[in-house]
Hints:
The complex is a heterodimer. Chain A is an all-beta fold.
Amino acid sequence: QLQLQESGPGLVKPSETLSLTCTVSGGSITGGFYYWGWIRQPPGKGLEWIGSVFYSGSTYYNPSLDSRVTISVDTSNHQFSLRLNSVTAADTAVYYCARQKAAPGFSGWFDPWGQGTLVTVSS
Amino acid sequence: DIQMAQSPSSVSASVGDRVTITCRASQGLGSWLAWYQQKPGKAPNLLISDASSLQSGVPPRFSGSRSGTEFTLTISSLQPEDFATYYCQQANNFPVSFGGGTRVEIK
């Protein structure tokens, strides 16, 4: 059964870079037509897609975050990672990673999800 | 970019009630729409893909339908474990977008 697990610091200072890694187990990060995505949820609010990466390294980003986001994939270690630069308190959220079942020309849906990790931006 | 207008934002209902949640897309998606259930402190869980395909293990009281760019999630007889927040997500193209969520509360 495929499982995803987020890891990284739970506290980041304003203006610094948020870095998270998602480790995939129980399945291949390169098999099938899947993207691997990051989604976040500020406390008490809804879901916001951050971006997605294909195993080849091709990426799609939320236009509202595009200038600050980098998502990369490490197929040898079954991981993909998120970097978000110049963070502010508005970036405080639970960050989820998820597999995204897509098809050529379609973005697809997310299943399964990691359990999520709370990242707080504060000095 | 495709915008998803989800309504209502919250609904109060009793066990046994029929609940309907709607998402309207700003442009055509075909059937590329998913529904998720999220319980407090937990990750969202995929309920329905392809607008109407129930995921394995999801009770048949959940159903999804599509009429043009309007999508509906129906819970035919609300159970205690169904009190949660529900989100739609357009899966047609990038950038991905979610509806604002519907909180189903106990009446």
